[in-house]
Amino acid sequence: MASGGPSMPGATHLASKVELTISCENLMDMDVFSKSDPLCALYINTTGSSWYEFGRTEMILNCLNPKFAKKFVLDYFFEMVQKLKFSVYDIDNNTYDLGDDDFLGEIECTLGQIVSSKQITRPLLLQNGRPAGHGTITICAEEITDTRIANFEVSARSLDKKYLWWSDPFLEFYKQTGTRWQLAHRTEVVKNNLNPTWRPFRISLRALCGGDPENTIKVDCYDHHVSGSHSLIGSFKTTLAELQEATHNSPVEFKCINPKKQKKKDYKNSGIIFVKRCQVEKEFTFLDFVMGGCQLNFTIAIDFTGSNGDPRTPQSLHYINPEGYNEYLAAIWSVGTVIQDYDSTKMFPVFGFGAQVPPMWQVSHEFPINFDNTNPFCAGIEGVVAAYQQCLPQVKLWGPTNFSPVINHVACFARQALQQNMASQYFVLLIITDGVITDMDQTRTAIVNASRLPMSIIIVGVGGADFDAMEFLDSDDSLLRAPNYEVAARDIVQFVPFRQFRGNTVALAQSVLAELPDQVTSFFNSYKLKPPKMFNQPESL
């Protein structure tokens, strides 16, 4: 999810947080036997000459009129021209590079234009400036001033069959905005079930009802079709005030009504929706946690496998040219200089993996690059760079490329921090790598386990290798599954290919860290953990 992005460089005043909701209509149909599978990517221009990708919505199968559930949250500065580009693609494969997919059109505008109008609708344009068929994009902006959220537990009973014996139901929640209904949340699909129980979910009160408990909310229940032509099972309307009456012992019941069936004399309903829980809570912001004493602990893991090439040759990704630069160093500098401000000690543990290490020359996937097992810390980003430069000549680049040991290493410390029962520490693991993961199954398991801990993983891909496996781990469209089918609690991986930024280290840092504030807040809020300085303070709504 793209949200909680970093501040724009050069800003002089405190920013307002703005949430953008995206929908499209009449997109071009690029598929022969089905419809386009659209996704919208947001790009930001901070330098005047280059764009960097801020984030992507989910991909929606077989749909020419998509309403994207994922939102973009940006810092809005009145005094700055913040250039945005919204590009829509038909996703045809599983690669990270959108250049491999069909282009459906884009628009360029400023955040100020969206904010001043609250909603804009523009025709999508091709890269030559001509119309992209009849396609349009609508962008709605809302300032984030209300940080309350509603926690839901919802199930259903006796839903209509849309196939011979079953349906594949999912729910959509809508907020009424004037004469329009704006999508607030879409649940997952429960396969082959007329009595589904959906996973617990959270919706901000701002998105659900504009913060007013008496505003009308519409809930649609659909039977999912792979073709994109989902069948309406039924709908109902309610308010937050009514939903809040729900308890596990006494859930609130709603009849799912299909308007097309109401004409039948014996029609009663198309099923019953049970809201078992709708609990409103104040949600702490990223600044609440940081200013309340939460420390971000930054660990770096560097790929020393042989595929990087001999560090003594200019062709190697580890080659340090006379100007003291390579892609590994650039990634360390750009990300580390931002995140070090949130760590009061500025002491960073740094590990290498995939190299033969002296004196035994055995391959290690978790060795401190300063070769001090009792104290793997480097002082500041300058210390990290110095240790990296001193380490290179002392190891033999080897293989394979195993991520799981270092992920599990950091997860041990995150697990200990969680036992303190407060939001005192959050762990960020930066992995810089050049290629394909060898221990993919073990890595998937490690990430799924870490998703239940105060921990995030940032992967920066250097060089020009195939990074499809990294994009698979960055589960923006669906939560990652371990080989045993256990599902991650949340998305904790952010992958970015270094060369996409063409040396723009400011843009690289912003893109890499874009999801981190939301990952921090979503974890601590879901566990109801308060910042240390607020731990003994009563919570008020």
How would you characterize the overall build of this protein?
The protein is an alpha+beta fold. The chain folds into three domains: 16-143, Sandwich (Immunoglobulin-like); 148-282, C2 domain (Immunoglobulin-like), CATH 2.60.40; 309-518, 3-Layer(aba) Sandwich (Rossmann fold), CATH 3.40.50. Helices cover 18% and strands 33% of the residues. The protein is built from eleven helices and 26 strands. The strands form six sheets. Strands 17, 18, 21, 22, 24, 25 and 26 form a seven-stranded mixed sheet that branches. A four-stranded antiparallel sheet has the order 4-1-8-7. Strands 3-2-5-6 form a four-stranded antiparallel sheet. A hairpin with a 5-residue loop joins strand 7 (119-125) and strand 8. Helix 5 crosses helix 10 (505-513) and helix 7 packs parallel to helix 8 (440-450). The longest helix has 15 residues, at 404-418. The chain is globular, with a radius of gyration of 24 Å. 40% of the residues are buried.
What descriptors fit this protein?
3 domains, seven-stranded mixed sheet, Immunoglobulin-like, alpha+beta, single chain, 541 residues, Rossmann fold, four-stranded antiparallel sheet
Question: In CATH, what is the class of the largest domain?
Answer: Alpha Beta
Under the CATH scheme, which architecture of the largest domain would be assigned? Answer: 3-Layer(aba) Sandwich
- Poorly predicted regions: 1-13
Percent of residues in beta strands: 25-35%
What distance lies between the first and last C-alpha atoms, to the nearest angstrom?
Answer: 26 Å
Roughly how many Å is the radius of gyration? 24 Å
Helix content: 10-25%
Largest sheet: 7 strands, mixed
* Coarse shape: globular
Domains, number = 3
- Structural class of the secondary structure composition? alpha+beta
CATH topology of the largest domain: Rossmann fold
Nearest-integer average pLDDT: 89
Number of helices: 11
Record field, number of beta strands: 26
